[in-house]
């Protein structure tokens, strides 16, 4: 874990720890929306790509992603001179597609409903000899994301002279949550998911990966639409004693408006669920040793503007 | 200058230096929109209030402000246990009024068109014995704002191992610009103002304070609607060899949309003019030693949403 944090240190932005106040309690935000590429995903991608051999690098990398992992891989690959191919759902937010292209990656589209991105990715990797870069089911990826947790530990020590007692983390496949759990063994970890997509919470309870049901409600949290967590991320979170909570779409939207107004940060829906859990009290008591991770900020401007307008009177 | 930066260090947020890329050039942003209170104004207010005697503190403070200085004074005063009264235009953005009230200050309204805030403020100070806290025409205020420049110097040394060659600063009365000029004697300082409100640029050229004409066009940059700069700020900037440029309202709006999309930062109109000058090339060549100050992020959500929608296709 420490080795991964050292490895990526010069390749990622050390995002600040920002104070916020909820119900009279001062706590902290870790705004990974300020990270290069607009989400924490560069951390894991950098940690994985930095460990490829020169020969592996020459054959390129393949990843599948709805957007944030795509940008993380594309940016890390460009910096290391590696060709990147990203398998992306055709309905991914335009802001994420164009940023991935801008970072120099090739995009291969697939249909979320009828095609398997895993199969397309595996075929591309087989045909070209490229290395697959998983979005969460990989020790290097998990440890790379955990560098955010290492920073949280160091930064909280600086500002309050103590270790974190609780960290609220937005959770899709669980790579960030598991990495932070490994980095901060003494903190309570609360994974936060959209209602109906809280498969990590249910998997923690069940002790095995439980898929999202096919009739899950629509969600604006495109970054958290993972259908099944992995034994790796689930195992790390269960070993740690993590627990999971879920938030409604309107609570997430209100958290985005709150972040704009009170933190001056643009947070995407999937990046705002942990803040929503803090604002609604769903994550339990908070303290000056509590940290809320804002995991990403890539949201289409028109969608974002509509959400701000809809919730401007409430925050 | 160094003494002021030391004095306020534990009272303000050390905002990060964030990378950005314009036309293939990587440069840096200093996001004071992330500062406590949503603008740099806490820096000067803290530096001023920390130097009041216990007896002065007991009589309270008075300030006049369209909003950001109000919040800076209110927050600094609350933390030091000082009563604050703020003289505020009746048409100040609601988001700034409510944040000032939330920080525990008393607000006295005045009409921008028919009343003099200076006279109201002076009368309140005289009647109550409270200390007036000017928004820019004061050495302590200027030096406090300059702590942002001290941080820029330290942070740029950390990331590129060099001193800044150019700093673009949003300019109203010139407190922030003058403070940064004093803190960074070797950097070129470019003050940026809204078109028609570029009295600092014209005052630098004329060698004396030149007021904004009465027929100046409307601007959304409420934070930069200063009618006349002060000899103090003008003198510091002229001594430094600063120059001034101006940007159009649509350029400012596009810069706000650009900041939301590429930096995931909420920047208010008056806080985005320096970025607009960078994006339009009006501030001249940029380099990895150039820094753009984003001076504030307090914007009414509905106004902000409309601006994002209007410019979503252009950034």
Explained architecture:
The structure is a homodimer of 315-residue chains. Chain A has 315 residues and is α/β, with parallel strands linked by helices. Chain A folds into two domains: 2-40 and 141-310, Rossmann fold; 42-136, 3-Layer(aba) Sandwich (Rossmann fold). Helix content of chain A is 45%, strand content 16%. Chain A contains 14 helices and ten strands. Chain A has helices spanning 2-8, 41-49, 54-58, 68-80, 94-102, 117-128, 139-145, 147-160, 175-183, 199-206, 231-240, 249-263, 269-280, 301-311; strands at residues 18-22, 25-31, 61-64, 84-89, 106-110, 131-132, 166-170, 188-194, 243-247, 290-294. In chain A, the strands form two sheets. In chain A, strands 1-2-10-7-8-9 form a six-stranded mixed β-sheet, sandwiched between helices. A four-stranded parallel β-sheet of chain A has the order 5-4-3-6, with helices on both faces. In chain A, a hairpin with a 2-residue loop joins strand 1 (18-22) and strand 2 (25-31). Chain A is globular, with a radius of gyration of 18 Å. The mean pLDDT of chain A is 95. Chain A binds chain B through residues 13-16, 18-19, 31, 33-34, 36, 38, 95, 257, 260-261, 263-267, 297-298, 300-302, 304-306, 308-309, 311-312, 315, and chain B through 13-16, 18-19, 31, 33-34, 36, 38, 95, 257, 260-261, 263-267, 297-298, 300-302, 304-306, 308-309, 311-312, 315.
């Amino acid at each position: 874990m420490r080795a991964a944090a050292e490895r990526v240190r010069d390749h990622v932005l050390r995002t600040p720890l920002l104070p916020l106040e909820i119900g009279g309690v001062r706590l902290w935000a870790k705004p990974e929306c300020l990270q290069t590429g607009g989400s924490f995903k560069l951390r894991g991608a950098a940690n994985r790509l930095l460990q490829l051999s020169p020969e592996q690098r020459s054959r390129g990398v393949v990843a599948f992603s709805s957007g944030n992992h795509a940008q993380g891989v594309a940016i890390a690959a460009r910096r290391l001179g590696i060709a990147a191919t990203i398998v992306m759902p055709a309905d991914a937010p335009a802001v994420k597609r164009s940023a991935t292209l801008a970072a120099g990656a090739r995009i291969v589209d697939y249909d979320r409903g009828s095609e398997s991105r895993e199969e397309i990715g595996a075929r591309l990797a087989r045909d070209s000899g490229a290395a697959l870069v998983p979005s969460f089911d990989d020790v290097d990826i998990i440890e790379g994301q955990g560098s955010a947790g290492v920073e949280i530990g160091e930064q909280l020590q600086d500002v309050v002279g103590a270790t974190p007692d609780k960290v609220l983390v937005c959770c899709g496949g669980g790579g960030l949550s598991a990495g932070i759990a490994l980095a901060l063994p003494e903190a309570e970890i609360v994974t936060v998911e959209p209602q109906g997509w809280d498969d990590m919470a249910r998997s923690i309870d069940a002790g095995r990966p439980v898929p999202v049901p096919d009739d899950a409600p629509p969600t604006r949290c495109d970054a958290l639409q993972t259908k099944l967590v992995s034994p790796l991320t689930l195992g790390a979170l269960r070993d740690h004693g993590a627990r999971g909570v879920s938030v409604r779409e309107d609570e997430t939207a209100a958290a985005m408006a709150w972040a704009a107004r009170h933190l001056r940060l643009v947070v995407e829906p999937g990046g705002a669920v942990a803040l929503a859990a803090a604002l609604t009290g769903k994550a339990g008591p908070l303290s000056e040793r509590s940290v809320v991770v804002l995991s990403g900020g890539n949201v289409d401007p028109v969608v974002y503007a509509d959400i701000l307008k809809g919730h401007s009177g409430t925050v």
